[in-house]
Write a structure and sequence with these properties.
The structure is a homodimer. By secondary structure, chain A is α/β, with parallel strands linked by helices. Chain A has helices at about 10-25, 30-45, 50, 60-65, 75-80, 85-90, 100-110, 115-125, 140-150, 170-175, 190-205, and strands at about 50-55, 70-75, 95, 130-135, 155-160, 180-185. Chain A has a six-stranded mixed beta sheet, with helices on both faces. In chain A, strand 4 (about 130-135), helix 9 (about 140-150) and strand 5 form a beta-alpha-beta unit. In chain A, helix 2 packs across helix 11, helix 4 packs across helix 11 and helix 8 (about 115-125) packs parallel to helix 9. The longest helix of chain A has 16 residues, at about 190-205. The radius of gyration of chain A is 17 Å and the shape is globular. Chains A and B meet through helix 1, helix 2, helix 5, helix 10 and helix 11 of A and helix 1, helix 2, helix 5, helix 10 and helix 11 of B.
């Protein structure tokens, strides 16, 4: 097979062009198209053009949050490390993941819950505005819904893209009714890569001009 | 929607059961089924049952490499951090990624190539046996093919699952002809999560009995 001759600096631009051509991008809202395309870029899966759901005005709200130096709390170290460091530095944004913290393990064990659910409890203690980005654990979204309803946390944005087979579909339905600004991939698909890609698409809207 | 009542410790087992039921697991080789199922577990994408390709005897060769304390070289920090630490410790295996190394950036700039291709050159300097796990950059696979042919590296296993739209399909075709033991996801799909999942499926074969 013959390789295309594309310079390193042009690979991403050419990829986005191909995605745009195959997507017929006119069908998707201008504000959302960068996010949909970046998720497809990271997954090569055009299903996301159909499954990504956005609450009203969520993109503007997310950008406002990023501008005020939000903390992004992820449910996996993979998602956390996948968020663009240079972009976060420019914005004064930081990303954290509590999954390896001993106090989270202890809390999960005591409550008979998952580490990811216990991470959401720890997220309530973060100072300042937070974005919650869930790419793995539906139990995190379910616990987050409870914590929001109890008034313990009020996230600027919830990225709800856990992946899998047990309570994943249900957890996404739940969080879309919580009343928080959300970007959710309905169905079983998602992942840490998708969570990071959505964060990056939002960050690049502000930092790559 | 009603949540299923599944205990945290049972979520993964129940997920694998569902995947097995939907997959009709009898159709896939016994040795490979754990790998295929774990990739579907991490992606919720049954396409991989059809696209994952294994060179002859690759699973046995990969397990032998893991038993002798191989170094896994990844092309992303996401894949690197996604490989199970406890499993690696048990086996004396380590995972490294050179993507943030200043000498790699300098080499890529000088050669007009990608960082990922320069990482493969650095991988040639790793002492002892190596597994190369590529979840992002087709340019890494293309450079790796050249380095193997030049006798500069002889990996125990190449996990070739880059994702994307420019030279991704082609790079996978190339590496399957290089003459190295491989596990490759043909087509556009793949990712850092898929690369890590394949590493973990192999590690768990030896560490979870």
């Amino acid at each position: 097979m013959k390789l295309q001759n594309v310079l390193p600096k042009d690979i991403e631009r050419r990829s986005m062009e191909i995605i745009g051509e195959e997507l017929g991008e006119l069908k998707i809202d201008h504000e959302k198209i960068d996010i949909v395309k970046r998720v497809i870029h990271t997954s090569a899966d055009f299903d996301y053009a159909r499954t990504l759901h956005f609450s009203d005005g969520v993109v503007g709200k997310a950008l406002d949050a990023l501008k005020k130096g939000v903390t992004i709390v992820t449910d996996t170290n993979m998602a956390c490390i996948g968020i663009n460091k240079m972009g976060m530095e420019k914005l004064g944004v930081k990303a954290v993941c509590f999954m390896s913290d001993p106090d989270v393990a202890a809390r999960a064990k005591e409550a008979g819950t998952t580490m990811a659910a216990a991470c959401m409890e720890k997220a309530c203690t973060v100072e300042g505005p937070v974005i919650i980005a869930i790419g793995n654990a539906p139990t995190a979204l379910v616990r987050l819904d409870e914590l929001v309803r109890e008034g313990k946390i009020n996230p600027e944005l919830v990225i709800g893209v856990p992946v899998g087979f047990v309570n994943v579909v249900e957890s996404k339905e739940i969080i879309m009714k919580t009343g928080v600004p959300y970007i959710v991939a309905s169905g079983r698909k998602g992942g840490s890569n998708v969570a990071a890609a959505i964060c990056n698409a939002l960050i690049y809207k502000l930092t790559r001009k």
